[in-house]
Amino acid sequence: MTDLHYRSLSDVCRRIKSGELKASQVTEAMLARIDRLEPELGAYACVMAEQAMSEAEHLDSERASGKPLGLLHGVPIAVKDLFFTRGVVTASGTRVMAGFVPDEDATAVARLKASGAVIIGKTKLWEGAFGVHHPDVRAPLNPWSSRHWTGGSSSGSAVATAAGLAFGALGSDTGGSIRFPCASCGLVGIKPTYGRVSRHGAFPLAGSLDHVGPMTRSVEDAARMLQVLAGPDPRDPTTLPDLPPNYADGLSSGQVDGLAGLTIGVDWAYASSGVEQRVVDTIREALDVFRQLGAAVRDVAMPRSAAALIAGWAVTCGVECAQAHADFYPARRRDYGPALAGLLEIGRAASATDYEVLEAARSDFRFQFDRLLETVDLLITPCMPRLPPEVEAIESSDSPDSDSASFLTFTAPFNYSGHPALVLPAGFSAAGLPLSFQLVGRRLAEPTLVRAGFAYEQAHGGPAHPDL
Question: What pTM was estimated for this model as a whole?
Answer without folding.
Answer: 0.96
